[in-house]
TrEMBL record:
It comes from the Bacteria. It comes from Limosilactobacillus oris PB013-T2-3. The chain crosses the membrane at residues 7-27, 33-54, 61-80, 86-105. InterPro entries: DUF3021 (IPR021560). Keywords: Membrane, Transmembrane, Transmembrane helix. This is DUF3021 domain-containing protein.
Length: 124
C-alpha cells in the first residue's frame, strides 16, 4: 500500500507541475476550475500507479509502450470529463509531455544509479 501511495504522489506531483506549465502558456482556453484541478491530480496519480508495469517481466520497451497507452487513455478520459475536447494539438501535446517527462525521469534514474554505484565503490 505504501508503494502505491508513493507512486500515486509522484505521479500527482509530475502531473500537477505539467498542468501548471500548460496553464502558464495558456494552453487551456478557459480558467481552471476546482474540478479541473482535482481531475488532473487524480488522473496524474493513476498514471503514477501505472508505472508498476515497469516492475513486471515485460521487456522495458514493451512496458514503456503499455504505459504510454495507459497514459493516453487516462488523459483522454480527463479531457472528456473536463469537456476540453480532443484535438490534434492536444494529442501532440500529450506525446511531447510524455517524452519530456520520460527523458527527465530517465536522466534522474541514471544519476541515482551513478550515486549508488559511487557509494558502493567507496565501501570496497
Amino acid at each position: 500500500m505504501k508503494r502505491i501511495l508513493k507512486r500515486f504522489l509522484k505521479g500527482l506531483a509530475i502531473g500537477s507541475t505539467t498542468y501548471l506549465v500548460l496553464l502558464t502558456i495558456h494552453f487551456q482556453p478557459m480558467l481552471p476550475t476546482a474540478f479541473n484541478t482535482i481531475s488532473v491530480m487524480v488522473i496524474s496519480g493513476l498514471i503514477g500507479v501505472a508505472t508498476f508495469i515497469f516492475q513486471t517481466d515485460l521487456n522495458y520497451f514493451v512496458a514503456l509502450i503499455v504505459h504510454f497507452i495507459i497514459t493516453v487513455l487516462l488523459v483522454a478520459v480527463m479531457i472528456v470529463v473536463n469537456h476540453w475536447g480532443i484535438t490534434l494539438q492536444s494529442l501532440w501535446l500529450i506525446v511531447i509531455a510524455y517524452v519530456v517527462i520520460w527523458i527527465v525521469l530517465r536522466l534522474q534514474q541514471e544519476r541515482d544509479v551513478r550515486e549508488i554505484n559511487a557509494k558502493l565503490n567507496k565501501r570496497k
